[in-house]
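Postdoc handover notes: sequence design on the structure in folder B. Input tokens:
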């Protein structure tokens, strides 16, 4: 919030309709009072009041945000008020309408100057009307000085209040706009995340399964053709079931009826008989317990991806998979004695997909490997 009120911007104190009504009530009230006085100059005073009303209705309401036109209008209004104040002193009460109106149409600095000038008019008019009687000035001068100070102070106060209200309204508008933008970006991010997740699911299931089928068929030996074809058919059936499960609920079919340890043991057994020379073992530590489906999916997919990478790239003879249950967390470790790799040689989508799954589950994934020393993939998730 600014520490000062801008002096070069038009001030809008309240809705236009309020000021129209207020201006009309003051002018009508003063006009009726002047009419009851029945003095020789009453008609001139009434004419001045009508002129002020006409100027406001036909000109003043259209110059609220036009600085130059507003200045000319304010000067004209003050002159019309001075004429009425000169002929009948009761016209001075029109100041109740003129002073707020000046704050309405002028910048703050110009409005204060105009209010001071308007409040000097009754003193000068009374002095001239009374034959240059200084007693009028000494009696009524302090009253009009006080009126000037109060008018200016009231204008400053209302200007500050309304300025803060306008800033709050602008801030609310900006916040609503930002909230809409955040909602749109969140929706787009959600769509992108869902697409990435589906890509990971397809990569970890259908792509790997069909790759296994191709590998089995290409490596088929006439003596082992029946066994390899049987494995190919079995793999194809399992991947068909996986695709149906993805469409139905995006839950791996391997977890449909088996517990997580049973599902992992089946993956390890399949890896040991899937045309690789590696000896694969699986074991659990700690007390097995039920986990949220999302965590079980992450653990299962990580195991599948790690075993696929071992079969494709490691050339390992021994593979060990350990599922360890601990208080508040579960750790999955997949270790092989294959060729290993350096940090910059990690495969593309596979390890990136595992890391993405780990982050989505609030866990951490670490990969330790060196040429000739095998690879260890370790995933730890909160449970």
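Designed sequence:
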């Amino acid at each position: 919030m600014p520490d000062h009120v801008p002096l070069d911007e038009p001030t809008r104190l309240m809705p236009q309709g309020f000021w129209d009504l207020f201006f009309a009530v003051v002018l009508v009230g003063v006009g009726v009072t002047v009419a009851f006085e029945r003095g020789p100059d009453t008609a001139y005073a009434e004419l001045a009041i009508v002129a002020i009303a006409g100027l406001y209705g036909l000109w003043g309401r259209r110059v609220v945000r036009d600085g130059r036109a507003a200045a000319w209008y304010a000067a004209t209004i003050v002159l019309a008020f001075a004429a009425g104040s000169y002929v009948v002193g009761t016209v001075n009460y029109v100041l109740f309408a003129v002073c707020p109106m000046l704050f309405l149409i002028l910048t703050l600095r110009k409005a204060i100057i105009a209010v001071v000038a308007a409040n000097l008019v009754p003193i000068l008019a009374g002095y001239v009307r009374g034959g240059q009687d200084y007693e009028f000035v000494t009696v009524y001068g302090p009253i009009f000085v006080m009126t000037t100070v109060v008018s200016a102070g009231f204008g400053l106060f209302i200007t500050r209040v309304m300025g803060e209200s306008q800033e709050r309204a602008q801030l609310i508008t900006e916040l609503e706009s930002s909230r809409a933008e955040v909602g749109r970006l969140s929706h787009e991010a959600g769509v992108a995340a869902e697409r990435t997740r589906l890509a990971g699911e397809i990569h970890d299931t259908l792509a790997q399964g069909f790759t296994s089928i191709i590998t089995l068929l290409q490596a088929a030996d006439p003596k082992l053709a029946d066994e390899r074809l049987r494995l190919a058919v079995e793999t194809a059936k399992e991947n068909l079931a996986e695709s149906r499960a993805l469409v139905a609920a995006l839950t791996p079919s391997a977890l449909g009826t088996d517990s997580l340890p049973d599902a992992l043991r089946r993956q390890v057994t399949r890896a040991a008989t899937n045309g690789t020379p590696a000896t694969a073992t699986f074991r659990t530590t700690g007390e097995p317990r039920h986990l949220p489906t999302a965590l079980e999916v992450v653990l299962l997919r990580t195991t599948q991806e790690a075993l696929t990478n071992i079969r494709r790239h490691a050339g390992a003879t021994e593979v060990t998979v350990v599922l360890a249950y601990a208080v508040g967390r579960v750790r999955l470790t997949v270790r092989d004695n294959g060729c290993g790799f350096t940090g910059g040689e990690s495969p593309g989508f596979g390890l990136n997909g595992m890391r993405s799954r780990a982050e989505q589950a609030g866990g951490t994934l670490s990969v330790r490997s060196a040429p000739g020393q095998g690879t260890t993939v370790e995933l730890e998730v909160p449970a």
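Context for whoever picks this up: Residues 1-14 have pLDDT under 50 and may be disordered. Don't rerun without checking with the PI first.
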